[in-house]
Amino acid sequence: MVEFLLTSDAIMALLTLTFLEIILGIDNIVFISIAANKLPEDQRSKATNIGLILAMIQRIVLLFFVTFLIGLSEPFFEYKSEWFTIALSWQAIILFAGGLFLIYKSTSEIREKVEDPGHDEKGVKSKVIKSLSQAITQILIIDFIFSVDSILTAVGMTNGLHPNNNYTLILMIIAVVISIAVMIGFANPIRKFIDRNPSMQILGLAFLILIGFMLITEAAHLSHTEFFGKTVGAIPKGYLYFAIAFSLFVEFLNFKTKKKNKEQ
Asked: Which of 82, 100, 207, 259 is the most buried (most CB within 10 A)?
């Protein structure tokens, strides 16, 4: 187990996944803060911390459930014709559906953030919250909505790294725990940084589109899909790591350029 966690693939997956979990968790922090700010001042930090801890617990529980489903790799339906072949399993269906969901959700979020950035915040602000229990209930609902993206991202980043699903499950749990710990400790600085650099969050959502396509191709690969005798191959994780690293490097250069222009 330790040997796997110390491999270059596992370390790259952990770092990339933790980064994405933090960037994509910014909205979660914002909505939790809006719900908590409706409470008396002495209860706000308590509600925020409880909300983030509940988010971590929810994600870990969902990770166990999704990992179990992905473990169902035996085909239950096979189809063969002259030009098309497929052997469907629950694993392939979960990955395919997850990939479609990530692409749809990411493109919708990008469009919403460009056209109406404050839409979701207005919806949360309009809800009446009079007690700590009401705030926590509202936070639980918000957490569950954001947990789906988080879990599918984790699956896309770690699926296929090791034949034993328990190893990748532990890797995903470590990434979730680290990201939540960072958000609890540095929620305000992270939020302020993203407010100053909104392109970082758009970039994170764009990465989800890449992960969505990766999940779809992986589903086709695992179901032994063939078109006109050509097998669909899985996209190597290294391509994704390079795309993310290159995009972040370009964003860093853009950030430095903006900073120098302001100073001048």
From this structure: 207
